[in-house]
Amino acid sequence: MRVLAAMSGGVDSAVAAARAVDAGHEVVGVHLALSTAPGALRTGSRGCCSREDADDARRAADLLGIPFYVWDFADRFKEDVIDEFVASYAAGETPNPCLSCNEKIKFAALAERAVALGFDALATGHYARLADGELRRAVDADKDQSYVLAVLDHEQLSRAMFPVGDTPKPQIREEAERRGLAVADKPDSHDICFIPSGDTRAFLGARIGVRPGAVVDSATGERLAEHDGVHGFTIGQRKGLGIEAPAADGRPRYVTGIDPESGTVTVGAAADLEVTAITAGKAVWTSGRTPDGPVECVVQVRAHGGLAPAVATPVEGPDGPGIRIDLREPLRGVARGQAAVLYAPDEVEGDLVIGCGRITGSE
Predict the structure, then answer these.
(1) Which of 48, 49, 101, 356 is catalytic?
(2) How far apart are CA 112 and CA 107, in angstroms?
(3) pLDDT tens digit string along 297-315?
(4) From which residue to which does the signal peptide run (predicted)?
(5) 361: annotated binding-site residue?
(6) How far is CA 119 from the centre of its chain?
(7) Architecture of domain 2-185 in CATH?
(8) What is the pLDDT of residues 104-146, one digit of tens each?
(9) Is 80 exceeded by the pLDDT of residue 38?
(10) Measuring CA to CA, how many Å separate 149 from each of 106, 194, 228, 357?
(11) Which residue among 7, 70, 104, 358 is the one 20 to 30 A from 113 at the CA level?
């Protein structure tokens, strides 16, 4: 097969490309330039798409003996990922930009160009597995990225390759060292790639501006503090609320609600965060077939943690196909804008992704 290997400049994508070469495929490497003004160097383990990353990817491709190109996707990335991220926070949501990047950049814009150029598959360094066209968790549970890949539909998955998903990360680094790849010890990227400072609130504030509002106690209605914008808060947040005095019972307060229209941020007790049902839009069923009725599953509502047994039912929402998820155990910290990813409920198939939807509400 002709395989396009997306090479970020990190160790995972370099080894993924190497394994595709070993498998006998005709491999071409490509690095995505996603920043309109890339820095020369990475900031430790923060950020990506620097000129250093592009150079690291090129050196890996040279070592593997494969052609290498840099494709400029900066404008598309800004429109489909960064602008959407800012707008989502302004609307009181808590988006995960990796979901949008996978859905709209790597497995849409990039994959579409790859197909147009005659490639059969797109290989990436994501930690996930594909078996008979089904998306599954990676062997390395700590590195598993099936949650942020669950937005991919059946057709997109049919053109995907995840060569490192069957191997724990330490062994990937050892393999890279054996192969002589200079990125073997390169730090992993953390946080949001386009906010190298790690200060999300400052990044959003510079783009959204000041939109004053109040922090209000959910039980008493008391106005506890003022804030500069709802973009500085997320459901379940405990710190940085600007509240001077503790609650009457001495227990911590958490963000339990965000109203972008009035600018009101509601805080309450930890128990107020518990939800028993979730509604989600933009439904994707990994098999390509919408279930005829309710499906037993385990739902995950955050990239790390937030799992509970549930029953998911396909529904028709105001914006198209959606999912209603009735939880068998309450969950906390369920935020609009995140993904609700459905996994098979049994121990044998529990790593199998069934479907996904973007959280629009909870009860």
Answers:
(1) 101
(2) 8
(3) 999 999 988 899 999 999 9
(4) none
(5) no
(6) 26
(7) 3-Layer(aba) Sandwich (3.40)
(8) 999 999 999 999 999 999 999 999 999 888 999 999 999 999 9
(9) no
(10) 10, 19, 34, 12
(11) 358
Q: Is 48 a catalytic residue?
A: no
Query: Is 125 annotated as belonging to a binding site?
Result: yes
287 labeled binding residue: no
Q: According to the annotation, is 13 in a ligand binding site?
A: yes
Position 272, amino acid:
D
CA dist 84 → 72, 209, 250 (Å): 19, 16, 38
What six digits make up the tokens of 354?
A: 């069934």
Q: Which two tokens stand for residue 179?
A: 């192969």
Query: Tokens for 228?
Result: 């500069």
Amino acid in the structure at residue 249: D
Annotated binding residue at 100?
Answer: no
Q: Which of 89-103, 243-257, 282-296, 315-329 has the lowest mean pLDDT?
A: 243-257
* Active-site choice (49, 98, 193, 297): 193
Closest CA to 150 of 16, 306, 297, 343: 343
CB atoms closer than 10 angstroms to residue 59 = 16
Instruction: Give the start-to-end residue ranges of the domains of the chain.
Output: 2-185, 210-272, 274-362
Q: What is the pLDDT of residue 47?
A: 53
Question: Cα separation of 234 and 334, whole Å?
Answer: 10
**Is 210-272 assigned to CATH 2.30.30.280?**
yes
CATH topology of domain 274-362: Elongation Factor Tu (Ef-tu); domain 3 (2.40.30)
| pTM given for the model | 0.94
